[in-house]
Amino acid sequence: MNSNQSLEQDVNAFWSLLFNIIAELEKRLFAHLAAHQLTPPQFYVLKTLSEHGGRCRIGQIAHEHHLTNATMTGLIKRLEAMTPPLVSREQSDNDGRSVDVMLTPEGNQRFLDVQHDILEQVRTLFGLLPVDERQQIIEKVQAYFHLLVQVFPVNKTNLP
To answer: What is the CATH number of the domain that holds 48?
Structure first.
């Protein structure tokens, strides 16, 4: 087998593996979220708020998730209407035209509960592997990810 054939075989094997991993992780994530009465977009809003210290502008959340402000407002309203509410909104002190979204204690706990459930599965699986194998997996995934974002940065000019 020549190097071009070997490369093609490796690319196809990696693509198949990566696709299967993503599909399986997505199914598992959706099941975890459903168990906590959340949709994926709602979870990502909670995650974004958590990453921003529990408070963020609607427009910034929408931008980070490539959604319109109107779509994000609908998501926020649904999170706000839950019992108990997972977020609250208030007019920004700095800009009266902007609305800040705040993570409620219940919203923060719901996010942490989902995160805990997911990490517990990872912990169980990693616990089955020797330390050196875990470290190799992490190093290889980090190297691939670093190359991916370095060689193919995501921007509007390089997407189909």
So the answer is: 1.10.10.10
What six digits make up the tokens of 47?
């995650």
Beta bridge partners of 91: 99
Instruction: Domain of residue 74: give its range.
Output: 39-151
- For residue 86, count CB atoms less than 10 angstroms from its CB and return exposed for 0-12, middle for 13-18, buried for 19 or more: buried
Q: What are the pLDDT digits (tens) for 24-66?
A: 999 999 999 999 999 999 999 999 999 999 999 998 999 999 9
Residue in 17, 20, 71, 19 with CA at minimum distance from that of residue 44: 71
pTM of the model: 0.80
Check: CB of residue 102 under 8 Å from CB of residue 49. yes
In a domain, 82, yes or no: yes
How far apart, in whole angstroms, are the C-alpha atoms of residue 155 and residue 62? 16
**Among candidates 69, 70, 58, which has minimal Cα distance to 102?**
58
Is residue 159 situated within a structural domain? no
Rounded Cα gap, residues 23 and 127, in angstroms? 23
User: What total of structural domains would you count in the chain?
Assistant: 1
Instruction: Please state, rounded to an integer, the average pLDDT across all residues of the chain.
Output: 91
